[in-house]
Amino acid sequence: MVLTGTRVVRAPGSLWRRIGDGVIITVAGSESFDRLTPTGAVVWLLLDRPRTPDEIADRVAQLYGIPVHDVRSDVEALLDGLVARGLAVHAQ
Amino acid sequence: VTTGPGAIELATRVAGFGLPGQREALSIDAAAWPSVAAVLSSRRLTGIALAAMDADQLRLPNEAERDLVERHREQMVHSLALERRLLALGEAFDQAGLPFVALKGPAIAHTMYPDPSWRPFADVDVLVRTPDWRRACEAASSVGFRRDLPEPARGFDERFGKAATHTDGSGLQLDLHRTLTLGPFGLWLDPAVLFEETTSFELGGRSFRRLNDTAMLLHVAMHASLGAAPPLPLPLRDVAQLALLGDVDWEAVAERGRTWRLAAVLQHAYAEVAHELEVPALPGLSTISALIPTAREGRALRQYMGTRRGRGGLALSTTMAIPGVRGKVAYARSLLLPRHEFLEARSGGTNRASYFGRWTIPLRWWLQRTR
After folding, report:
1. Which chain A residues are Cβ-neighbours of B84 within 8 angstroms?
2. Closest CA to B79 of B125, B15, B122, B127
3. pLDDT (tens digit per residue) in B111-122
4. Which member of B50, B54, B204 has the closest CB to residue A15?
5. How far is B331 from B345, CA to CA, in rounded Å?
6. In this predicted model, what pLDDT tens digit does every residue of B233-279 receive, in sequence order?
7. N or C: which end of chain B has fewer CB within 10 A?
8. How many CB atoms lie within 10 A of CB B323?
């Protein structure tokens, strides 16, 4: 689970492409592909450098003009999923 | 779905999106879409089409927009699967201590386009040194790639070959190269020099060697001019991207044009970019126009472009380019009397493997000339 203060970044072996507003991602050694919706894609693009879940939730809330507490849990769930699948990692 | 000349012309116009020059927005209606879509997919232009659509330079009905996104997703899944295989191959080559250079697809997509999603690719191409050829084939095999065709004769690959296609269990293809192109132009260049003309790019958390921008321009021009007749729009777009965005040393291009006998090839590539993609004045045009192709180059280029290309024309011009009588005889013998396992593989493992079909080509030529 991604803790609030922990910074997360794309896994070094991740490979991805934009498809319209979304992205598809895979990682070296995997056999599968993950597809992110436009909102998920925004989170993915923010992971170009290490960021905390709070930083990402702030940026997403700003972008969509909604309260940050409405998006925080979704952002955390997405980061958990990305880390669990090896697509993102905790930054040192 | 039929793909008539109208669909090809429309797809080629899409290929020019974002290049310099006056370009009107293109609208394609629902009736025309299926045939245009088929061409965009088969010629790997979905990424450029999607970028054009986002910029309102390609206008499609809603259903066609969804179809384009889906077609592009398929292309990108394929490209990403190939990049995963390139990472595995890179590990295997590193472990075996084999230097290699990533060519075309990923190397161009990640360095010469506004976004790599603009540039799908069908296979991965890797250049290895000729003395490393056998070990490179073994390293490819260690990560699951199997060679499609055995070499026609022992030692043929290192002496005359361009590349060997390998396929893995999921159908993904690796083209293992020893030189950049088939035939005389591949024999006239010195592949060992290419290893001194490289730079790096990042992919999946590791660094790969690629040709530097100058050598890459030469390669994409060769591929555009010699890879298909008539040239395909994506390789032509690669030429335009390199000329416009690459840090190209034009004096070095001119030097290679002379020493590797590429003047006619470069001029043909530039002429086709001007004609097909409507970019008449690419950077480097004056340098390339000033080159003077030899008659021999012109004859060789015509063999790639003409109707004999697939019927022995390329083999004939290769024979002419091989130095010395013994070399020519060895090459001709390899093609006319290849090993039986080569013939079998060429015939798809059927019982029709025979020398007769190979011998009828020169026989037909001889008959035509004596009539």
Report:
1. 15, 26, 28-30
2. B122
3. 999 999 999 999
4. B204
5. 19
6. 999 999 999 999 999 999 999 999 999 999 999 999 999 999 999 99
7. C
8. 8
